[in-house]
Amino acid sequence: MKPLLYWLLLLASFKAFGIDTDQQLDLIIKLYGLSSSPASCQPKPLSSEKAPLLEAGEILFNSSILSGDNDSSCSVCHLNDKHLTDGLPIAAGIGRDTAHDNSITSSTVLVPRNAFTLFGRNSSEFNTFFWDGKVLERDGEIYSPIGNGYKLGFESALAVAAILPLLARDEFLGKQSYFDSTVHFDSINKQYYDSKFQAANGVISNILANHNDVNINALKAAFTKAEIYSPTLADVGNALAAFIGKLNDACSSSSWESYIQGSTDALSEEQKRGAIIFFGKGRCSGCHTTNLFSDLQYHSLGVPQGQFGPYIHSQDVGRAGVTYLPEDRYKFRTPPLIGVSRTAPYGHNGMFSGLRDIVQFHINPIPFLSTYQWSGERERLTYGKLLSSRSPMLGYITIESEEELDSLIAYLEAL
Fold first, then answer.
1. What is the pLDDT along the chain (415 residues), one digit of tens a residue?
2. How far apart are CA 65 and CA 402, in angstroms?
3. DSSP output for 57-78
4. Helix H or strand E encompassing 197
5. Which of 30, 232, 327, 376 has the greatest CB tally within 10 Å of its CB?
């Protein structure tokens, strides 16, 4: 098989010889092995005995049953009209106003990372979760903050990822108070690894045994249909994963998907030129690869830290917070691009309000930084080390005109 460089040079020569855009894209689709049935809209099928988990998962996703202060649910950060994101730069967790449609108030606790879409997460290709990859499936094991997920009864890495917000202080456990703490917080927050799993099992058991409302009764009935009579945190995760996978059924076919299925009129000429740039001189496909448009690896763009972060001095060290390796500082997982035009704002901390902003930052961060409002002296004076972490792959991007940039963005809007 000839090397990738050969095919890229061949593709470049096509333009010189007047080969049209559709012929160039046909070569690209074959070269990259792009499928006419993208994995983003094809969830793993559920066996008949697991089908009742869908009902349990839907109840858990949309209700605040497992929220310490009864003010949070998965659905408040993953909204249907926002392509299963929340439209905020960084997510908002506990402390919402339950009396007014879970609106954000002065007492709402911020979760210092951007909420990502859930589309594609149930794909068999998807094996790493969260911006820092703290849940990872590899070589038959699921690595996570609570231990090996398979040994705990989880059926997928997605199932483990789905329950981690339930164990997070800022997302579900509830506020800590000298006088009015929650059972969730007191039982779970101080525990580590599999002890946190066992503590959560106790909380779930207590809720189902000692509380009586419409959602809890419906949840118990759904688990009973699935022949699960004493649900554990793993059962909760498996139910949520089943429901998240079902959400992918609503994933509408994009213009790009229609194009690779053979409808050459699905893209405009500008979008076709943008696709050629994406896979060619723009070098976007170096990281945004496969049908998910992600290599599921970790890279740094050198994004400014901003005012909020999960570590000391409001930093977010990204992947290094999981691996503890200095070379992983400020690296974050490549986000998949399915429906990317509907998931603004962008970046791990929502720093970029629009597609043009973040694409421009990939190409050249200087225009963005020239107008950026530094949040403090420390951020301004220490930004050099973060900027130095930028992936060397970004140095090979060759976009030389606004017209090319416009075409690239037009293509991204077709995904």
1. 445 555 555 555 555 556 889 999 999 999 888 875 545 555 556 666 667 899 999 999 999 999 988 888 999 899 988 999 999 999 988 878 766 677 787 778 889 999 999 988 888 889 999 999 999 999 999 999 999 999 999 999 999 999 999 999 888 887 766 556 677 888 898 898 889 999 999 999 999 998 888 999 999 999 999 999 999 999 999 999 999 988 875 556 789 999 998 999 999 999 999 999 999 999 999 999 988 899 999 999 999 998 888 888 888 999 999 999 999 999 999 999 989 999 999 999 999 999 999 999 999 999 999 999 988 888 888 899 999 999 999 999 999 999 999 999 999 999 9
2. 50
3. HHHHHHS-TT-TTS---GGGTS
4. helix 194-210
5. 232
CB 167 within 8 A of CB 173: yes
The two structure tokens encoding residue 369? 């930084």
Tokens representing residue 41 in the block:
């809209």
Sheet (strand 128-129) strand order: 128-129, 135-138, 141-143
Residue type, 393: M
Q: Alpha helix locations (H) across 263-344? A: 269-279, 320-323
Please state the separation of Cα 221 from the chain's center in Å.
Answer: 31
